[in-house]
Amino acid sequence: QAVPAGSHVRLNLQTGDREAKLPDSENGKVDMREERRKRLGRVDVDSNSFTSQELKKALAKMKESEKAERKVRRAHEEEVRKKFRPIEQLKEEFEKLNVKMETDYEIMVKLIGKFNSSASTLDEKVAALYDLEYYVHQV
């Protein structure tokens, strides 16, 4: 059930129930009808009381907010694209500089190949396992 803002909420550890205390009015007494009216003012918890028009308006608002979120997401993606370049482009640029760039995955595949190779010595296999352990923890 919805709880109005400013209410005191606590968890009863004996029963496991959540309890809410409504704020007192100015004169110190709580008029339950008035508090209920305040509490249910804009949000009606009875699901049968919504009209189809209200539901349509709420759905339209949801669609509008979803469109706004998409616009924000697209703007963020464009901003990221401006700041960063794809890895393929970076690889091409590093090749022009005679620098070979490898991803962790590519290095791990090489290490597994070295470990499985019958041509590798025992020391090479042990070194491959240590290096592989490092990269696995990175991933």
From TrEMBL:
GO biological process per UniProt:
protein transport
Which residues lie in Basic and acidic residues bias regions?
16-37
InterPro entries documented for this protein: Hsp70_NEF-Inhibitors
Q: Which residues form a coiled coil?
A: 55-107
Q: Is the Coiled coil keyword given for this protein? A: yes
User: Where in this protein does the record put region Disordered?
Assistant: 1-37
Q: Which GO terms describe its cellular component?
A: endoplasmic reticulum
Highest taxon listed in the record's lineage: Eukaryota
| Keywords of the record | Coiled coil, Endoplasmic reticulum, Protein transport, Transport
Named from the GO MF annotations, one term is: adenyl-nucleotide exchange factor activity
Name used for this protein in its record: SIL1 factor
Ranked from the top, the taxonomy reads:
Eukaryota, Metazoa, Chordata, Craniata, Vertebrata
